[in-house]
Amino acid sequence: MLDGCTPWPEEFAERYRVAGHWRDETLGELLGRLARTHSYKTALVAGTDRWSYAELDTRADRLAAGLDWLGIGPGDRVVVQLPNTAELVALLFALFRIGAQPVLALPAHRSSEITYFCEFTEAVAYVIPDVHMAFDYRELAADVAARVPTLKHVLVAGDPGGFTALGDVRGDPVDLPRPDPAEVALFLLSGGTTGVPKLVPRAHQEWSYSGRAVAEACDYGEETVHLVSLPLTHNWPLTHGLLATFHAGGTLVLAPGPSPDETFPIIERERVTETGLIPGAALLWMEAAEWDEYDLSSLRRVTIGGTKLQPELARRVEPALGCRLQQAFGMAEGLCGFHRWDDPEDVVLVSQGLPVSPDDEVRVVDEDDHDVPPGEVGQLLARGPYTVRGYYRAPEHNDRTFTADGFYRTGDLVRLLPSGHIVFEGRVKDQINRGAEKIAAEEVENQLLAHPGIREVALVGLPDEVLGERICACVVPRGTPPTLAELSLFLRGRGVAAFKFPDRLEIVHELPLTPLGKVSKKTLTALLISSGAPLSSSLIGSGAAAPSSFVKDA
Ligand code: J2J
Question: Does residue 233 line the site of ligand 1, with CB under 6 A?
Fold first, then answer.
């Protein structure tokens, strides 16, 4: 087991092996087995690339040999920041094969996040596209490489521009040592709640099982054609899209983004049967489906998740898209729930899914970790064969975030239906869910506190029909208050990903406090929602005193 990762107690490991969840197979071997079983079947379609299982397997092998030749080997961390391309999939399996561990960044991340991932994991390589969405990743990589001494290689998909082209590292397949299936296969990013992002170490055997369990829960088979249009490097598209589809011998189709323009022609052409969407994208699809002429009749089901799907919107999905609705609830740390094909409609409309493994253990607890009465709301705790036991190199955070007996405190408020389906009711964690991108408020607050015009700041999520939540920064200024545009520029200058920029700015005299003297985000959010109008007009410049509820916790 890798240094910095929490091991599974042997008693649990044994149970999961006996149950057949954990198998003696690495993710690299999984692809080899699939290539033998489904060799000429199309595994992957992305842009103009259309690869069979055998071709993907060969490409992964060649790339593994090339990476080995470069000196990248077992236990080396490689930060991967690629958009939805076939190369990304080949690279992941190549890294799995040599036992190197991809750290999965998002295309939207910038120097602040990437430098942190590279430094924290002591990465030896960083893989980028050349230019994507009008952004030149080579400039970003040059900046990161200058700051991170461990980084020996920057590999570029496409034009090398001074670095090594990914295409040039392909060698002839060679025999490579086999990683241990219990070892970490990859690092996923946690939504996070603290000042620095947390990395989730996922091992070959347990992460592979999560994909198999999703495939079973969703009845995937060889006929499954799953379209991923969200960034593939998120856990949800990776397990539900890539892993589950491959386990079933289906076809994975990648789109560059989720807009109807980007996806509808692909659905028609590839006869897509399944796809995952966040509620905001589903809304766009439903509107476009009314007038668009593309044939979407191959869609068997759309799965909506990542952020709460309101029941009113849920009700419109099946009539508008002409296929079944399924909801998905999950987390990079593990536990995920999906509806089953025979779940009754009223359950599908109001709940977010049922855990996928018979060995998933969930508890719903109050603030003292006591189980709440059945059906009541409390914090969701999770443990099971694919839910991690700790974050990478974060012992103190792990002590707070995992119970002594290994349950992960999800920070989500839920209630359980008698059937076991999870209903999402809110969060206790200091996180904003903006269009399913998770933002740790503290991380952005720390960045903003470096602004000379900001004395204090609190970030909260406000409800938004399309994104689920929008980011509101409440700022106590120092001198002349900054504007929203200045804050965005400031964060851009510090290399922060744009999805973390505030959508709204409130200038206030002071922030409401809890009895313990911490900023009460609950009060702040309630005030912002109830005031509707910008708080600034009532709290600043007018000389008006803050309402008492604004300075004290309710
Ligand atoms: C409300 N909140 C949700 C939902 C996740 C499947 C599906 C999603 C993710 C994911 C995933 C939600 N309604 N339907 O990894 O395998 C919020 C919760 C959760 C957090 C985790 C998967 N589905 N959420 O979104 O790691 O707050 O994973 O704890 O990105 O998203 O975010 P993430």
Answer: no
Residue 198 is assigned to a structural domain of this protein: no
Model pLDDT for residues 156-205, shown as the tens digit of each residue: 997 777 788 888 888 888 888 999 999 999 999 998 888 888 999 999 99
CATH no. for residue 143? 3.40.50.980
The conformation of residue 353, written as its DSSP 8-state character, comes to: B
- 405 CA to centre of ligand 1 in angstroms: 23
Residue 167 in domain = yes
Instruction: Name the closest-CA residue to atom 31, ligand 1.
Output: 306
* Residue 235 Cβ contacting ligand 1 at under 6 Å: yes
Cβ–ligand 1 distance for 85 under 6 Å, the answer: no
Residue 239 Cβ contacting ligand 1 at under 6 Å: yes
Please state, in angstroms and rounded to a whole number, the distance separating the CA atoms of residues 448 and 466: 26
Spatial CB neighbours of 532, under 8 Å, sequence gap ≥ 6: none
Residue 366 φ then ψ, to 5°:
-90, -170
Of the chain, the percentage scoring pLDDT greater than 70 comes to: 96
Overall number of domains in the chain: 2
Given ligand 1 and candidates 226, 274, 331, 413, which is best to mutate, with the most ligand atoms within 8 Å of its CB?
331
Q: 145, 180, 215 — which closes off a domain?
A: 180
How confident is the model at residue 552, as a pLDDT? 29
pTM: 0.95
**Boundary-marking domain end, from 180, 198, 213:** 180
pLDDT exceeding 90 applies to what percent of the chain? 89
- Which numbered atom of ligand 1 lies nearest the CA of 327? 14
CA of 191 to the centre of ligand 1 (A): 9
Contacts of 129 (CB under 8 A, 6+ apart): 81, 82, 83, 85, 107, 137, 156, 157, 158
**What CATH code is carried by the domain that includes residue 511?**
3.30.300.30
Query: Is the pLDDT confidence value at 33 over 60?
Result: yes
Residue type, position 480, single letter: T
Residue 10 in domain: no
Distance (Å, whole) CA 167 – CA 155: 9
Q: Supply the range of the domain harboring residue 112.
A: 26-180
Q: Which helix (H) or strand (E) holds 187?
A: strand 184-189
To test the pocket of ligand 1, the residue of 236, 362, 421, 428 to mutate (highest count of ligand atoms within 8 Å of its CB) is: 236
Cβ(500)–Cβ(439) below 8 Å: yes
Helices 27-38 and 53-70, packing angle to 10 deg: 150
Is 155 among the domain residues? yes
3-state secondary structure of 119: helix
CA atoms within 13 A on the CB side of 411: 18
What pLDDT was estimated at residue 116? 97
Question: Does residue 327's CB lie within 6 angstroms of at least one atom of ligand 1?
Answer: yes
Query: pLDDT digits over 271-317, tens only?
Result: 999 999 999 999 999 999 999 999 999 999 999 999 999 999 999 99
